[in-house]
Predict the structure of ANKF1 protein.
Amino acid sequence: KMTQQMRDLQLAQARKPPGPSSPNAAKRLYRNLSGKFRVNYTSFDEGSLVGRGEKEKLRKSYLFQSNAALFEAVELQDLDRVQELLKHYSPEELDLNTPNSEGLLPLDIAIMTNNAPIARALLQTGAKESPHFVSLESRSLHLSTLVREAEQRVNELTAQVVNEAPNADCSEKEKQLKAWEWRFRLYKRMKAGFEHARVPDAPSSVHLSVASSSSLQVTFWEPLSVNSAVVTKYKVEWSCFPTFSPLLGEAVIDKLKDLHFTIQGLLSGTAYHVRVSAYNMKGWGPPQASTPSFAIPSNWREYDGRVPRRRGQAEALDHLLGQVKTVHQHCICHEPCKNQPQSRKHSVSKSLKHLFHPGSKFLKTLKRGLYLTAVFYKDDNILVTHEDQIPVVEIDDTYSCLLMQDFLWLTKVSCMWDEILWLRQCVTVSQSSCSCILQTRFKMLLAISQMQGLLGIQDLGQVFFEPIKDKQGNILIVTLKEVKTNQTFESVRWVPICKLQSTRKSVSSPEEPTALDMLLISLQEKLAYHQRSSHALSPGLYLGYLKLCSAVDQIRVLVPEQLPNILCHVKIRSNPNISREEWEWLQKMASMEEPVPTEPEADRSQNPLFQELQVAIKELMTLVNIPLQEAKDFRLYSQEVLDFGDQVSFLLLLPPSDDVCTAPGQNNPYTPRSGFLTLPLQIFELGEER
């Protein structure tokens, strides 16, 4: 179904003499005839059309309507409709930067009617100004021409309506007259908006910071004035001289979603001055110098010339592992073991059929021992065996207590699931010592191999940070793995977690649940932990709080539940780099054994890092429930900045030396509020690496 307007448009196109037409011919014809076009989204019924060709025609007509609707919404200053169209269509589908028959773009209409909200919405989507306006004179001439032609057309139609007798043609001309009168008023308003506009003021603020040893970060804000026309682009200039003569470089920024720019390729140790100016349809405004007035590209490592801690570590570990394998070349089964990962070509969907084979060795119940379970989940579903059980295999049926060191060793093994067979064979060779520890770890490797073989999957995921223990003497080690593939697995049973929890028949009493029941009860919590532990921080510099507590066989570290792979932290700023000058100041403060900055001081008010640290320390102390006056005895770790890649870095806040690690039985007067947990230090280190 089509609206009457579209049928009129098609009839008009059919009456048009044959000849070459531009890609926008239909659009121009439509706008010249109707002037205004109101979209009725319910005027099409795609379900009533049959065939791909008709659907394609429908799509083109629909997009044509959307483009016309965008022009109309901008002309009518309908912000809600503009935002709706920008949300549901891409710039390409809307022809956002293709001029209409009058040589105008939606952004031109918005800025010349001085509609700042619509103009900003268009700019953030990538809208441009018309390429026809290469100068102030060309814009003024173009607007004058549009006003003159619209006025002439209004006069012609007025004369025709007055002189002709009332009939169908006269009624149509009256409609055209109203449309042209409306367009005439629009063009006059645009022309007046252009004539009364002035160049923009300087940006309200320009902040300059050191991004690296070869780059500077420039962040700026819009001019404060509301009387000038909408700003459509900015220009960043930099020079080694405060007079900006000569200029070393400049960059024009027309993507205004984020008002910042990184100047790359600078020389370390050289001072650079930066300024930013704004542009609107009247031209460039005056520049605003940055604060501070100059900056020197540098990095904290230049203070003493140290190299990155992690440089070459991955290569060194690979080399070390290769050396270990070379030493064990005498192992009889080593060669088959080395080639085994390449020979296993089972797809997940094919190999998971083992779950439903009657001869599989997954356990139904636990009988006092040490066990391994693998939790695979996808969305709200979990992988189960043919008996609706989470896959469980036995490690040792005579093992009554799990030594923490054995468990931590297994968590390290989880970083090399593909090497399990090789590790197992090497441990077999070493078993001549009959070490109890080696025997236990060998049984762990056997259980892992069994789980991998039954599932047909090498990667069993991440080991949960603590095993599940019940009162019957069972210990359950849990691995968690999220399946993100969208393929449909044949013969694989994915069961909704809620259904598994509600239908499984417990074999234990509520007062003394088995380890399997405890796993099902806490399954959502464990999956939430697994997902949160893979989250990454946004780029920036952070202040972390290092708090440890010790037990007989382990040291644990305090972490937030929402991000358990990172220390308790607050964000200092978005720029992760610590410059050499900032690091020198931190070193000076540490050498003087001054307390951490919690209160403002007049002589340091001009130090941006000092101010940022004050705010961050107050926020962090509130987060971990420590009175601010206690922070005066805390220390900033001044040996290094902890770099996690190129985009995240940490400064560490340490309690007094006697309180960094709380010993068993030691009173800790300040307990963090809810939302924190303590992880074994080795588990935390593994999560950090992941």
